Amino acid sequence: MRLSIEQIISYQTEGYLIVPNVFTNEDLQPVIDELSAEIDARARALHAGGKLPDLHEDEPFERRYMLLHAQCREIGRGFDINGYLGEAIFRFLGNPNLLDVAECLLGSELSCNPIQHIRTKLPAKRVYSDEPDYFQNVPWHQDCAVTTPDSEASEIITFWLPLVDATAETGCMEVMPHVFKRGYINHHAEGGTTIVPEKLPQVAPILAECPKGGLVIMNKYTPHRGISNRSDIVRWSVDLRYHKTGAPSGRDVHPSFVVRSRLQPDSVLTESAEWRRMWREVKEEKGKSLHRV
């Protein structure tokens, strides 16, 4: 999968790009199977502890987590890429289709940025009233706001992909085109890391619907937010970031690693055990902020 000149120009002009048909089912299914297995293991442990009465074993991937979470919110505690450190997700970080797209924008010396997440957006009607809104619907923000200022000159690009169709009904993103040209806009931490209300650009947002297998690419200065999931399934998604090898990652207390190199192919990390070791040995500096705000 390679981007066309027209797609590259569109990204450089708008600050975002939606690319369909980047991934095949063979690319995504190992990740889905691994997430399903992780959820199953958590559910069985909670069931054995008397905290979860019904395992909902016959429910599909798109619904099972929702039904388990309704019984016990503990099922989602620490559930993220750097929480479970699975083999399939590690392999996906170096997926050739993904890296071919990233190379079109960043060049051939690519590192996987440590800011990466699995997102489970529940249907709005399933969300508990005591949960803050930003827990499900991330407010208007720029991704650079969750990096440290030393990475200001780094070109860190977000690659967001849904594991189910991301539509207006299931809760896709909204993005503000062109605004990335203004650079960093002040954020504050109230209500989740979000753009200060009086600084929010008055720009009509674009609905960034993206089918399963597609990819939403965003400049780190592109404002975007999540909208409510009005469907009856979980909107699963993965958001990853890549940057040029050698540039500050914006999260230097966490491990980034080389995923592609034409100049030094031996520098590419291929061993998942080493990736896990790097994460497990991370010792965040006490009192050091991981965000700008």
From TrEMBL:
Gene3D superfamilies found in the cross-reference section: q2cbj1_9rhob like domain
InterPro entries, per database record: Phytyl_CoA_dOase-like
Keywords recorded for this protein, A-Z: Dioxygenase, Oxidoreductase
Pfam families named in the record: PhyH
GO MF entry, a single one: iron ion binding
Annotated PANTHER family: PHYTANOYL-COA DIOXYGENASE, PHYTANOYL-COA DIOXYGENASE DOMAIN CONTAINING 1
Protein name listed in UniProt: Ectoine hydroxylase-related dioxygenase (Phytanoyl-CoA dioxygenase family)
